[in-house]
Amino acid sequence: MEIKNNTILITGGSSGIGYELACQLQRMGNQVIITGRDQARLNEAKAKLPGVHAIQSDIRDPEAVESLYASVAAAYPKLNVLVNNAGIMRKINLHEAGRGLRDLSLEIDTNLTGTIHMVHRFLPLLKNQQRAAIVNVSSGLAFVPFPISPIYGATKAAIHSYTQSLRAQLKHTSVKVFELAPPSVQTPLQHAFDAADTKGMPVMDVRKLAELTLRGLARDRFEIRPGASNLLKLISRLSPALGLKLTGGSLKHMLTEAK
Ligand SMILES: NC(=O)c1ccc[n+]([C@@H]2O[C@H](COP(=O)([O-])OP(=O)(O)OC[C@H]3O[C@@H](n4cnc5c(N)ncnc54)[C@H](OP(=O)(O)O)[C@@H]3O)[C@@H](O)[C@H]2O)c1
Q: Does pLDDT of 258 surpass 80?
């Protein structure tokens, strides 16, 4: 896809990967709109990225998605790229009793349902543009489960599957469908994890991740798998058991810690 002269909406653009994509895409001559739940973090991002428009919106809330659509469609009728980046990741010990269903569903509501709602709501607008794209952010953990974050991994595997189907269904439209599967990247998402959780996993700098993403988009690489994500996909095909062994190394630490 052409990576300049677009109007781009990035969910979760107030920090990490979304923020860095907003920064680099704006520099390349795109109009960028970012979202997030926390107004203070959005204000901080906006102060550092003048020209970027920020809208507070929670992708878990269907009414907020509706109102986001109404604001964006009115102010930016030429919107042609949607980046579904907002996501959360937690360590979850499945032995723990007493977690409510609402709590257990947080990753599903954000990473999976939120993305599906956004696509559903914005697709008619995107299909009206001469050239358009949807970029769904999954993870290298879409290919191999990560036992200490079992629900997160399940949502990313689901996003991988959903994105393939979406691409197939939109094949004869103006909308190109991309999946960005980042490896482990240094962002606030990682703050809940300590060295023992991620031991042995190489961590990519967020600027490099964004550069590789833009390169992949420009070359129409529909599944962008930077760094270790490419390896995880290969391992998942050659030896799923080895993949699980690699990502499951930190499980013992979590279970012992909990005792
Ligand atoms: N970092 C990694 O190692 C890594 C690896 C693979 C994939 N990913 C994926 O990359 C994406 C971005 O992650 P990141 O590492 O950049 O994390 P991050 O720094 O924590 O940023 C997440 C962004 O999403 C927003 N967000 C969270 N929940 C939201 C909601 N319900 N509605 C709207 N915005 C929401 C956050 O803002 P608020 O909290 O203010 O809402 C923030 O702007 C996620 O989908 C993540 O799963 C990350």
A: no
Phi, psi at residue 173, to the nearest 5°? -120, 180
Kindly report the protein residue whose alpha carbon is nearest to atom 1 of ligand 1.
185
Label each residue of the chain as H, E or C: CCCCCCEEEECCCCCHHHHHHHHHHHHCCCEEEEEECCHHHHHHHHHHCCCCEEEECCCCCHHHHHHHHHHHHHHCCCCCEEEECCCCCCCCCCCCCCCCHHHHCHHHHHHHHHHHHHHHHHHHHHHCCCCEEEEEECCHHHCCCCCCCHHHHHHHHHHHHHHHHHHHHCCCCCEEEEEECCCCECCHHHHHCCCCCCCCCCCECHHHHHHHHHHHHHCCCCEECCCHHHHHHHHHHHCHHHHHHHHHHHHHHHHHHHC
Residue appearing with tokens 């970012």: 34
Residue nearest to atom 17 of ligand 1 (CA): 189
Q: Residues near ligand 1 with C-beta < 6 Å?
A: 11-18, 35-38, 41, 58-60, 85-89, 110-111, 114, 137, 139, 182, 184-185, 187-190
Average pLDDT score over the chain: 96
The answer to whether the beta carbons of residues 194 and 103 sit under 8 Å apart is no
Gap between the Cα atoms of 58 and 43, Å rounded: 16
Per residue in 60-79, pLDDT (tens digit) is: 999 999 999 999 999 999 99
CATH topology of domain 7-258: Rossmann fold (3.40.50)
